[in-house]
């Protein structure tokens, strides 16, 4: 018998050391995130491992699993607690050690192992931990699997059995790096800033980029789990500005920034201007659809309207569909539709053959960007960006909203806009042209300006993005419109950043 996890236990007590603690809200839509020691303890992580092992058996999958951990002060101990639970459930565990998340996804294919459990808090601040899980490569869990996992763990409905075992794969990163770099070198000599925010990717990104023929300027690539400069998140302006300064100082062709677990890549052009990931997606879609006839792409609802309106994509026969934000949703949809690639505004990119295996990998994205520049020898990154039709778009902005209420707030916001549309009401003097409600609500008005509000899938926050093809002022107008609706809900707090 193993005790049912408690939702709250006080640290520095007998109970904290003797019982599992698992806060239920840590089971999110497609992965798991907790504040370590405040929302989950090591026995709680062990319970998660036993629950995951039980779910793998329930899904009828061979009980073998890849695991690795990101570079944080506590991630290794969390991984070993998870491994003890997985082994108790009868799983054979393949441990690849310190890794970026896509290295664990790669290992599923390379070692022919069906399941994965990567210990990472991704780009979240220190204090957070989590696990990205899957049992059907290249996909990761969605809401159905996460709901079932939550039921098993919180009810201690484990099916532990003998037969679990452990194998450590020595020097595993070399296999991953060889897979990425076994290809022709770039013809064009590119000077690239590789920024890692002292996160896990620092151990691998410079080496990969050098191997494909880049001259690499390393920026904060030394591993340091205190993250002394800034959080490794290429959506945050602090990291983007650090990359900008390095690009300008070294006169680099491009700056590439990797998040804490290496599955996303942010881009700064040769003039030091950050290019939001959805615009990078449009540039890559142009490059790829010129080679692959009638290419299909999937993009998330936070992404630019250019995927539909860009004349070059239209001329090349590219087709794009919008889908739910979230790496698991996007990965699944890209896989189901057989799209050439999926692009998410956060920087998760999913490349199917011949570019990748369908999972998100910041280094595969970085290589695709270098190849795009290689195929445009007379053009800079800024030239390729400036060739896009001009739009004014915001970064991702996140006002605080507690996990317990954020979905109900979004339901009310969706109903508000649906009601306005049904009445034919105008917002900011313009009619609503389109509402997309697959994930929160994306409101587009007559002039093509749009605003999105949705619930964050992995933090106690909402997500707000706005864009206008008309002017910077219209972008600000859309933000004020969206924000005025959110301000009618007292549960919505301060933003992490604003335009």
Rough shape? globular
Strand order of the main beta sheet, please?
A: 1-5-4-2-3-6
The CATH architecture of the largest domain can be given as: 3-Layer(aba) Sandwich
- Which structural category do the helix and sheet elements fall into? alpha/beta
The profile of the biggest β sheet is:
6 strands, mixed
CATH class of the largest domain: Alpha Beta
Radius of gyration: 22 Å
CATH structural fold name of the largest domain:
Alpha-D-Glucose-1,6-Bisphosphate, Chain A, domain 3
Total helical segments:
16
> Oligomeric state of the chains?
single chain
**Average pLDDT over all residues:** 96
Which residues sit in consecutive blocks of at least 5 with pLDDT less than 50? none
Report on this model:
The chain is an alpha/beta fold and 499 residues long. The protein has 3 domains: 14-171, Alpha-D-Glucose-1,6-Bisphosphate, Chain A, domain 3; 183-387, Alpha-D-Glucose-1,6-Bisphosphate, subunit A, domain 3 (Alpha-D-Glucose-1,6-Bisphosphate, Chain A, domain 3); 392-495, Alpha-D-phosphohexomutase, C-terminal domain (TATA-Binding Protein, 2-Layer Sandwich), CATH 3.30.310.50. The chain is 35% helix and 20% strand. The chain contains 16 helices and 21 strands. It has helices at residues 14-18, 42-58, 75-88, 101-110, 143-154, 173-181, 205-211, 237-250, 277-291, 306-309, 311-315, 327-337, 362-374, 381-386, 406-423, 472-486; strands at residues 32-35, 64-69, 92-98, 115-119, 128-134, 165-168, 191-195, 215-219, 254-258, 265-268, 274-275, 296-300, 319-323, 341-343, 349-351, 392-393, 426-427, 430-436, 441-445, 450-455, 462-468. The strands form 4 sheets. Strands 1-5-4-2-3-6 form a 6-stranded mixed beta sheet, sandwiched between helices. A hairpin with a 6-residue loop joins strand 9 (254-258) and strand 10. The longest helix has 18 residues, at 406-423. The radius of gyration is 22 Å and the shape is globular. The N and C termini lie far apart (53 Å). The model has no long low-confidence stretch (mean pLDDT 96). GO terms for molecular function: intramolecular phosphotransferase activity; metal ion binding. Keywords: Isomerase, Magnesium, Metal-binding, Phosphoprotein. Pfam families: PGM_PMM_I (PF02878), PGM_PMM_II (PF02879), PGM_PMM_III (PF02880), PGM_PMM_IV (PF00408).
């Amino acid at each position: 018998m193993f005790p049912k996890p408690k939702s709250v236990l006080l640290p520095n007590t007998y109970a904290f050391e003797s019982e599992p603690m698992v806060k239920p809200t840590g089971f999110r839509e497609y992965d798991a995130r907790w504040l370590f020691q405040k929302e989950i303890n090591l026995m709680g992580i062990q319970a998660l491992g036993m629950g995951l092992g039980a779910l793998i058996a329930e899904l009828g999958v061979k009980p073998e699993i890849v695991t690795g951990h990101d570079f944080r002060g506590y991630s290794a101990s969390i991984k070993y607690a998870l491994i003890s639970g997985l082994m108790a459930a009868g799983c054979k565990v393949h441990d690849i050690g310190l890794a970026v998340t896509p290295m664990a996804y790669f290992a599923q294919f390379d070692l022919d192992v069906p399941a994965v459990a990567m210990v990472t808090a991704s780009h979240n601040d220190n204090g957070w931990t989590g696990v990205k899980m899957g049992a059907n490569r290249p996909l990761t869990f969605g809401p159905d699997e996460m709901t079932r996992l939550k039921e098993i763990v919180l009810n201690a409905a484990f099916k532990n059995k003998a037969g679990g075992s452990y194998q450590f794969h020595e020097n595993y990163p070399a296999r991953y790096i060889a897979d990425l770099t076994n290809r022709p070198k770039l013809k064009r000599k590119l000077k690239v800033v590789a920024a890692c925010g002292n996160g896990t990717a620092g151990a691998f990104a410079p080496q990969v980029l050098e191997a494909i023929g880049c001259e690499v300027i390393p920026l904060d690539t030394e591993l340091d789990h205190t993250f002394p400069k800034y959080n490794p998140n290429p959506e945050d302006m602090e990291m983007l500005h650090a990359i900008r300064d390095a690009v300008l100082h070294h006169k680099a062709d491009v700056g590439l920034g990797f998040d804490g677990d290496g599955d996303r890549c942010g881009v700064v052009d040769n003039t030091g201007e950050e290019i939001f990931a959805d615009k990078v997606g449009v540039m890559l879609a142009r490059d790829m659809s010129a080679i692959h006839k009638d290419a299909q792409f999937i993009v998330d609802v936070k992404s630019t309207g250019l995927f539909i309106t860009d004349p070059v994509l239209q001329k090349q026969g590219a087709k794009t569909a919008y889908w739910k934000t979230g790496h698991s949703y996007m990965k699944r949809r890209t896989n189901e539709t057989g799209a050439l690639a999926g692009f998410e505004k956060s920087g998760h990119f999913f490349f199917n053959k011949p570019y990748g295996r369908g999972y998100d990998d910041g280094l595969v994205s970085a290589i695709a960007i270098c190849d795009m520049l290689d195929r445009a020898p007379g053009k800079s990154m800024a030239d390729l960006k400036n060739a896009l039709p001009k739009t004014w778009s915001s970064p991702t902005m996140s006002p605080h909203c507690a996990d317990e209420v954020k979905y109900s707030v979004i339901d009310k916001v969706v109903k508000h806009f649906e009601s306005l549309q049904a009445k034919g009401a105008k917002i900011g003097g313009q009619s609503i042209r389109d509402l997309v409600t697959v994930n929160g609500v994306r409101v587009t008005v007559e002039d093509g300006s749009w605003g999105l509000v949705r619930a964050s899938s992995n933090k106690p926050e909402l997500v707000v993005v706005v864009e206008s093809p008309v002017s910077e002022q219209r972008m600000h107008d859309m933000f004020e419109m969206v924000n005025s609706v959110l301000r009618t809900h007292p549960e919505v707090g301060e933003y992490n950043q604003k335009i």
